[in-house]
Amino acid sequence: MSESPNLLTFLSAPRQHEQPFAWRDGKPLSHACLVAQVAAWRRVLSSQTGSRFALYSSDSATFACILLGAWQAGKTVYLPGDVLPATCANLGELVDGYLGDFPSQYAPLTEAPLTAAESDGARPAFKALSPDFPALVIYTSGSTGEPQAVPKFLSQLAAEVASLEQLFGGRMGAADIVATVSHQHIYGLLFKVLWPLAAGRVIHARQLEYLDEFQPLSGKQIVLVSSPAHLKRLPAAFSSDQAAAIRVIFSSGGPLPSEVAAAAGQALGSIPVEVYGSSETGGVAWRQRVAGADDSWQAMPAVAWRVAANDEVLEISSPHLPDAGWHALADQVQAVDRQRFRLKGRLDRIVKVEEKRISLDALERHLKAIALVADARVMLVEQPELQQRQRIAAFVVLSATGSEMLAAQGKLALNRLLREGIAHAVEAIALPRNWRYLDALPVNAQGKTTRADLLALLEPAAGAGLTAAPRKPGERLLEQEPQRVLLELTMPADLLYFNGHFEGAPILPGVVQLDWAIGYGRRYFALAPQFLGMLGLKFQRAITPGMVVQLELLHDLQKSSLAFRLFSVAGQHASGRITFGAGHAAS
Q: What's the CA gap between 41 and 111, in Å, rounded?
């Protein structure tokens, strides 16, 4: 293991050929396999015209080989967060080709066959990568709007790999890397691919969809790279072997509630290390809330920071940025000392409604302080077609008590009760006008709740144009058994959820498909009251306007779960298993 990993030269570092660089399905992939595959991709891509290629692969080992081969061939790699039709259409205007798991109509290069020389085990020569090479264009998760493209030079990635090893390498040792997050985003890319490869740690090729899928290899310790969304939904129990195997847990993508950090420490044997940063800035600070620790963040060693005098936003200077200047973030902070600061809220979550400044962060905190609420998100909705053009919408995950009240008294009564519960703390104009009650907040591959997914769930307000758009498919019951139902669903061309998702290429949001599965499941089966989690959730094919699909639901009484799959003549569109229980809903 390298004491000072260098991302620019690690392929040339001496390593034993039989030493594994990855595990796939319990089998090791050797370092010799890595260098041979990288050399093959370098050869194939060197013969391709153009310098910009989009890469998407769900397998971390395959992804690493293609990415490194592309850099060796002098290609800039674009990393989309998904391969949905609108994403691919947008990439078509930017890239010269596609690599990995893109739909067949984009003619992606899916493998690089080895030549005899590459197969015989001879070590190929690799060039040292240039720090100023434009290595990547990565996309934000789109938490506040459409994903934004963020270019990255190799110098930025190499500096961050070195910073992470300096800060955390000692506590990780030679542990393997297991992740529940995608490497198509900056956090997963660094923590589950670039950093471990450069430092000589072994990665696991398959991403865990849920933590209860984790099965440790005999005698192996692991570093778990996860997110608040996954850690909030810890399985009911971990075996002693599972807990003992976990050496370090990382979490990023949003603040981890203190009670979740404590629960993870108790269940997994390690308090998560939280990393604060963004696609644009890279890593900025970290914290680990062990007993007695406060909620402040400590700046990473290479990061200089200050608090802007006029608006208290955080400004940083860092080698993780493209230049040496000061970069302003959207977070307001309070300095604790020279190394630590406390987050106060996002500046871009201060909105104006009828000239009144409203903090969406503060509004969420007040809602979550009510015993009826387990979790909540609020956002400003612009509705220019209505007389009242702006309104606050609230998306609420209820506690067990809140769910009981909703069932007993109905939505209007609960709306009124929650509004009264926060009326003492916010101005009347800030009280939410739209309320949506969810089993869980929708999350993307990085465990983030995006504005687009919330908008897809928003109940339309009264007003011309909004109420006319249907929110349910045409339905026909095909088969019904005691614990199985088969429905035929027809997608109206003017379905509300196609609107804006996406312009020019409308598709049905995955969160809506999941919401329908739960809704129909509750109609036909006596499901337990509380949503607990999801297992094996997959979205394979897009559902478009006018499409006719079949929804099969299977109720497992013993496991208190609902399995669903959506399919059509085109193949399978989505599938998964949803678990329910009688206790507190996971938030």
A: 8
